[in-house]
Write a structure and sequence with these properties.
The chain has 91 residues and is of the alpha+beta class. Helices cover 48% and strands 13% of the residues. It has six helices and three strands; from the N terminus they run H-H-E-H-H-E-E-H-H. The protein has a three-stranded antiparallel beta sheet. A hairpin with a 2-residue loop joins strand 2 and strand 3. Helix 3 crosses helix 4. The longest helix has 10 residues. The radius of gyration is 13 Å and the shape is globular.
Length: 91
Amino acid sequence: MDHRDSLPHSALSSPAHIRATWGGTGSVEDASAAFGFSRAKGYDLVRRGEFPCRVLRIGRSTRVVTASLLRVLDSGEPEYSATRAAGFELA
């Protein structure tokens, strides 16, 4: 059984939980949940270059930089001007 099954969704997406459990990068799915949008929306934003924090392509894998995610969650401001230009706002 995955330890995530026993925690409420909001606890899994909290900055404290991310700091305690993520390494240097996390999945687009988990980062999208932290921002409050779906996995599909997260990958769509990545594909358009509008994900609100730093994303790395490693081979065929796409990873979100944990430090960047935490900065955006703490500040409420996307890190890239392309995101701001597109009118993306964090809830």
